[in-house]
Amino acid sequence: MTDLSHAAPRRSAEGLLGNGAVMVLFCWALAAAMRFGSVDHVGIRFNDTDDASRLSQVRDLLNGQGWFDLVQHRLDPAFPVPMHWSRLVDAPIAILILFCERFTDVAAAERLAMTVWPLIVLLAAMAAVWSVAVRIGGVLAGAPAVLLLAFGLSVLWQFDPGRIDHHNVQVVLSLLMFAAVFGQSRRAGALAGLICALMLAIGLETILLLASASLAAVYRCLMEPQSRTWARAFGTSLAAGGIGLMLTTVPPALWQVGVCDSLSANYAALAVLGGGGLALVASADLRHRRMWMGGVAAVSVVVFGWIEPACLRGPFGQVDPRLWPIWLDHVEEMKSVWKALGPDLTSITAMLSGPVLALGASLFLLRLPEMRRSPAYWAYVASFSASFAIGCFQIRTLFYANMLAIPLIAAAIALVCRMAADTGRSAILVLVAAVLATNNSSVVLAAVSLLPQAPAKAVATQSDERSRACMDLREYAGLAREPAALVLSTLDMGPFILAASPHAVMSAPYHRQATGILDGHRILAAAPDEAFALLKARGISLVALCSRSPHNALYASMAPNGLQSRLTRGEAVDGLQPLETRGVVRVFRVAAP
């Protein structure tokens, strides 16, 4: 009788909160309503350079640029290079724009699509965190997972209206991949392999997560005979998806070329050899499976390195080393948490509290024997831990760590609720209290109330707001009125000039575009006489600078007497005719020699 009475509160809680569709839709609507406060700036004021560049890439596709033509032809036209981004993200945004054009003009259609797309991805994210949490912690873990996401200040900004970069898509695919890795069926294995291939085709930010899932598949093949059907489906799907997506998204002229930063011949070979080899080892009746699997791994890595040896150093293996001191070393998302956020303890708490809680949750969940025995669980925890560790030194990875943290925290909450129910306490009350205590919004409010606020925080916030003016397309109206020409600007302005005007730009913050970046930096850092000669040699007609760009301070330090610094100080420079100097964006025409 006692056991039944203890189980009743648990069943009641699971019945109330276990309806996945209802909870997902409710929390999505709640989060979406909270994000709609920023709708008015969509398509006008951007979140960062990548959103503006994605819009330009989608516009080019809609204006007739070929599916396989990934070159941004207005980015340093003298030295065109294909972007490392995928059409797989461009396509749904373009389809949304075309659909919205049936009801309104092009500009409004773009803004509608840029508003709707992140909300669609957010809905998928809600479903994904629910799915992973339920697989780790049971039905009761789903509700806290979507509630934690709905109040997750440290992650929801990636789903703001106007956010059309690919990181939100990648994290959703990562979660869906792990949900399938926890599965046992052939269908789950095939789905996991296909999602791995999709993630590889969209970008390499998640390469460690792919490796972790693949290692889980290898373990299941070698150590769990009952899972070999799953492993065979995973390997087959990964191999087919890898080669299929390369053939359908990579320009045919580049099918035999290996690059380090996107899907290409070397990564396709890794997927085909590794995935196909895993499928064969899982299928065949072999006595020495470990030896055969080791051979597959060795051959895969050797072929990968043979196609492009530089890629053995990682996705940045082909980056020109000269870009680091003048640009990459100063990129905010490449800095550590401590350098990027400085003395702002509230922001540091917001970014780190979720992963820290998840570390504790992952250990707490080891109380469950099924978790200790699950290769999928260990792969998930390894992926989360790697994202967290890397994120402490490169802050951009903390978004992935915070998203992967949510199902772990939710599963731990569910376990606590079951333990409470077994002792006669209300599982629902425990769940509500736990969500209130662990959600990111509560943690941030507590940090604001309890932690000392550094005086520099207000200055940093004001500086951030000032620099955001450089991301406002309205500030480029004067430049846009000039006849189309090649424009020299700082790196951070390039994507916004492309989005706001018909002009071409010398450089933008994309590592493949080394020639334009190096030449642009050389001109901006040079003395006026030398700079003028270089401007003419490169065919540059206009110079545009943003008075609030963080690059101004960088050039003031590196080249205080260079062209950039002199113009920023308002000094007259021979050979440059001021066209627009009163606004945030200042424009100069290069005079005829």
Automatic annotation (TrEMBL):
- Superkingdom to which the source organism belongs: Bacteria
Q: Which residues cross the membrane?
A: 16-36, 112-133, 139-157, 191-218, 230-255, 267-284, 291-307, 345-365, 377-397, 403-421, 428-451
Q: Which UniProt keywords apply?
A: Membrane, Transmembrane, Transmembrane helix
User: What is the protein name for this chain?
Assistant: Uncharacterized protein
Source organism per entry reads Alsobacter metallidurans
